Amino acid sequence: xxLVESGGGLVQxxxxxxxxxxxxxxxxxxxxxxxxxxxxxKEREFVAGISWSGGRTQYADFVKGRFTISRDNLxxxxxxxxxxxKPEETAxxxxxxxxxxxxxxxxxxxxxxxxxxxxxxxxx
Length: 124
Hints:
Layout: E1 2-6, E2 9-12, E3 17-24, E4 31-38, E5 45-50, E6 57-59, E7 67-72, E8 77-82, E9 91-99, E10 113-114, E11 118-123
Parallel strand pairs: 2-11
Antiparallel strand pairs: 1-3, 3-8, 4-5, 4-9, 5-6, 7-8, 9-10, 9-11
């Protein structure tokens, strides 16, 4: 079972990036999927999550209106479109999969599978 993130990189403030997370080893089409991030010296924090069907999404307040999470269950892939990036959003971004109990999980312990992370660096 593997989650592999891609799409990170170095961008300038105000730019956009699209992260992808490809799942392999088993299907995650019945799982909720989430994106978290961890900046140096800080705890990992929830960014966005999506239900198994894509019908429900949740966002951290600090990304609402700028980030969009989506998924393609046929491709076993989840995406995070990030617009208007800020320097303080420099972090390693992780995708995760967890059981969908009817709500989108918001905390790390609710997710069972994690990717290795992709670095996003936003310069000012």
